[in-house]
Model the fold of this input.
Amino acid sequence: QVQLVESGGGLVQPGGSLKLSCTVSGSTRSIFRMAWYRRAPRKQREQVASITSRSTNYADSVKGRFTISRDDAKNMVYLEMNALKPEDTAVYYCYEQTTTNDVYWGQGMQVTVSS
Done:
């Protein structure tokens, strides 16, 4: 059974930094794309960043502040978040898409940016 487990969230002051991690276990298929999504209160879920073996993509709202990376040897994906703003407050989800188009989600993790 595939499991995605996020860690690294929590409370941070505006302007601060956090690094989210996602560990993938139980996956027997090759990973095509990994991503981070978030859902803020009273808003729809949005893709924050994604990464394949060839490229990365970012939402306009986080470009220049967030960096996504992956370590395939460790089956992990990271999201380094800098210059955090209160509007970055959300539940963040890890996402995996395999080469056979299977999709998996993590359970979600709260990130709160507040003074």
